Amino acid sequence: MALTIFALFSGLISINAHALANDHPGFFITPDMQFDYAQTLFDQKDFIAAQVEFKRFIHFFPTDPRHDRAGYTAGVALFRSGQYYEAAKRFDKIIRQSKNIDTPWTRQSSFMQSQAFEAMGNTGYAQVVLQNHLKLTRDTDTKDRIYLELARMHIQNTASPGKDELDSARKNLMLVSPEKQREYKVTKQLAAIDNAVNAPTKSPVLAGILAIIPGGGMLYCERSKDAFISFCFNTGLIWAAYTAFDHDNPALGGVITFVETGFYSGNIYGSITAAHKYNKAARINILNKTFNFKPGFDPVNKSFFLKLTHGF
Q1: What is the three-state SS of 124-158?
Q2: How high is the pLDDT of residue 281?
Q3: What residue stretch is flagged as signal peptide (predicted)?
Q4: Can you tell me the distance from the alpha carbon of 231 to that of 215, in angstroms, rounded to the nearest whole number?
Q5: 168-176, long-range: CB within 8 Å, 24+ apart, which pairs?
Q6: Mean pLDDT per 10-residue run, the chain (312 residues)?
């Protein structure tokens, strides 16, 4: 019985939401009532309910001047509730329907859509969104923000294995308008990038050559514990293989030699990899003195990564 009454009451609200315009008596919901209710839910961090109520406001009052604001806030609510894909779709709709790319809500939608893609672990799309906006906007402040965001993404990507985008970061920072370069401390950011590029490195080739002596490559990469373990393990297996052959046990010697070949190859490959990791860590350590890398989580690929949290 209670459920029936609630359903009937909800139906009356939906039907009579249009009643104000038609001048019929009944239960009225004004645009102010609906918008304020949605905003209250948003302020209370009930983002799931807030985005529903903002969508309801858009549906019932499509000509209200707060239409774009409601659409944008609904997208932010989706983003903050972790629905990044739906948030990206909402912001994309605002961008496509806008006749002027430089309206406040359209501009903010581009930045938020970029953040939504980034939160999904798709930095490529995040950059494309901003680059598309950059081609269309004439607002200098917006361009500066985009250059800074792109630089931040390139610096963050550099923290990922196998990527070096510091040159792209530098190019974007240098495009920031002269008036804003001091405010955003661009000179300091560029100096940090230059220091990272010129950081002391280890040669992967030399690490591999030194690894001919088990543990030598690891010792060169300043990983003394790994060097000691590698030396003991490999020399131990080599001695065991020699002893087996010396005692006329070729079968055992062959098995040990086969196993040692794998570990010996791993010692060389591990030394080369250690050199690459050393170089990456050296750059991150220098960048971290200016920027701030913190662990992040990619909800799509379910993997951890380093996230740049420093604000320009």
Answers
A1: HHHHHHHHHHHHHCCCHHHHHHHHHHHHHHHHHHH
A2: 85
A3: 1-19
A4: 5
A5: 169/193, 172/147, 172/148, 173/147, 173/148, 175/143, 175/147, 176/144, 176/147, 176/148
A6: 40 44 62 94 95 94 92 95 95 90 91 94 93 93 93 86 85 92 88 88 92 92 92 91 88 89 91 90 82 52 47 50
**What is the signed CA dihedral for 126, 130, 131, 134, rounded to 10 degrees?**
180
User: Please, are residues 132 and 166 in contact by the beta-carbon 8 Å criterion?
Assistant: no
Interatomic CA distance for residues 149 and 285, integer angstroms = 21
Which amino acid, 248?
D
- The DSSP H or E segment spanning 209 is helix 204-210
Burial classification of residue 1, based on how many CB atoms lie within 10 Å of its CB (0-12 exposed, 13-18 middle, 19 or more buried)? exposed
What three-state secondary structure class fits 213? coil
Cα separation, 169 vs 150, whole angstroms: 7
Helix 224-246 crosses helix 250-287 at what angle (to 10 degrees)? 170
Residue of 222, 225, 230, 227 whose CA lies nearest to 278 = 222
**CA 81 to chain CA centroid, nearest Å:** 17
Query: How many CA within 13 A on the CB side of residue 305?
Result: 23
Rounded CA-CA distance 112/114 in Å is: 5
Whole-angstrom Cα distance, residue 48 to residue 14? 19
- Which residue type, as a one-letter code, is found at position 245? F
CA-derived radius of gyration, the chain? 30
Q: Which amino acid is at 24?
A: H
pLDDT for 175? 94
DSSP annotation of 176 reads S
How many residues in the chain? 312
Q: How many CB atoms lie within 10 A of CB 53?
A: 23
Residue 35 region by backbone torsions, left for phi larger than 0, else alpha for psi between -120 and 50, else beta: alpha
Contact predicate 283/271, CB 8 Å: no
